[in-house]
Automatic annotation (TrEMBL):
PANTHER family on file: ARAC SUBFAMILY, HTH-TYPE TRANSCRIPTIONAL ACTIVATOR RHAS-RELATED
Molecular function terms, GO-annotated: DNA-binding transcription factor activity; sequence-specific DNA binding
Protein name: AraC-like DNA-binding protein
Organism of provenance: Paraburkholderia rhizosphaerae
UniProt xrefs under InterPro entries: AraC-bd_2, AraC_XylS_family_regulators, Homeodomain-like_sf, HTH_AraC, HTH_AraC-typ_CS, Tscrpt_reg_AraC-type_HTH
Keyword annotations from UniProtKB, A to Z: DNA-binding, Transcription, Transcription regulation
SMART domains: HTH_ARAC
Domain HTH araC/xylS-type, residue spans: 212-311
Length: 329
């Protein structure tokens, strides 16, 4: 028996659904959806995950959407930004009494924590990334947008990053999950181009990116006792002086940052380390000797590594006994 035509109008991750089911599916993602009752057209959404970034490829027509602001109904809406690229058709966004129109090639950054209405009055194709705000915070980037933000369409840099976004979204369902995650991380590193104000100089964006990449290198080599500013700079393909200048502008010293990470990592390891594993932890965290490790650790935490490990073990035993006691009662 032939399926009723209304079932063929809409597809969610390749599954045919009714208009009513489409509205419910959109609602579960944190959006209100309304159709133009007098018009009908096919709509499809294909969603994928690339590491911590969501990928959405959208073909829609004759409908409007707006974010659900209620924290219980859509608690995740405040935790992400939506970066959309219009591929065909025209998208209209109304917000705070203003109307903006986006045409093929345009990019728009939307913050679902702030109300807006998105209108599609013809068939429109878009690709979008759901970007965690935490990922932008970690990179020192802007992550709040009370109004829809349009990156400079005349900027060659914006155009290059737009193409990177489109390439990433086109790989959903094709590339392996590990590769998608890697591509998404690279895309996040480029987000400064799309979310920075037009007045932000390219040199300032480059400095932010350098600091982030330097932190990532340090974190990857936390146990390398040979780590130095020169080695960090070499991995970043830049001079040591340029690296130090970029970090100094942000009030950072590469080796002080490395020592801080090493001590934090050591504290985590000591929490679950067996008795007498102090030397092993010291070497895992890049310290030349246990005496050097002990001095640095005590200066940071006010107790020796052995005392810290003992206190963590005692706290774990107390917690276990407490849970056992409650279970028996």
């Amino acid at each position: 028996m032939e399926m009723h035509p209304c079932f063929k109008d809409h597809k969610w991750n390749a599954t045919p659904i009714t208009r009513h089911a489409w509205i419910n599916a959109i609602s579960k993602q944190g959006w209100n959806c309304k159709f133009d009752a007098s018009r009908r057209g096919p709509s499809t959404i294909d969603m994928a995950q690339a590491g911590q970034t969501g990928i959405v490829n959208i073909d829609v027509a004759w409908q409007s959407v707006s974010p659900v602001l209620h924290r219980i109904s859509a608690p995740w809406n405040g935790d992400r930004l939506i970066v959309k690229v219009v591929k065909s058709g025209t998208l209209r966004i109304e917000q705070s009494g203003q109307t903006a129109t986006f045409k093929p090639g345009d990019v728009v950054v939307l913050d679902p924590q702030h109300m807006f209405n998105e209108f599609v009055c013809e068939p429109v194709r878009m690709s979008a990334l759901c970007v965690p705000k935490d990922a932008l915070r970690e990179r020192g980037l802007r992550h709040r947008f009370p109004l829809a933000f349009r990156p400079d369409p005349a900027s060659a840099d914006v155009g290059a990053v737009r193409e990177f976004v489109l390439n990433l979204t086109s790989q959903a369902g094709k590339a392996s999950d590990p590769l998608l995650a890697r591509l998404a991380e690279q895309c996040l590193d480029l987000m400064d181009v799309l979310v920075s104000d037009r007045g932000t100089r390219a040199s300032e964006r480059a400095s932010v990116a350098t600091v982030l990449r330097a932190k990532q290198v340090i974190a990857r080599h936390i146990g390398d006792r040979r780590l130095s500013p020169a080695r960090i700079a070499a991995e970043l393909n830049m001079s040591t002086s340029s690296l130090l200048r970029a970090l100094k502008a942000k009030g950072l010293s590469p080796m002080r940052y490395a020592w801080s990470l090493r001590l934090e990592h050591a504290a985590r390891l000591l929490g679950g380390a067996p008795h007498g594993a102090i030397q092993e932890v010291a070497y895992q965290c890049g310290f030349e000797s246990t005496s050097h490790f002990s001095r640095a650790f005590k200066e940071r935490y006010g107790m020796t590594p052995r005392e810290y490990a003992a206190s963590q073990h005692a706290a774990a035993v107390d917690a276990l006994e407490g849970r056992t006691s409650r279970a028996r009662s």
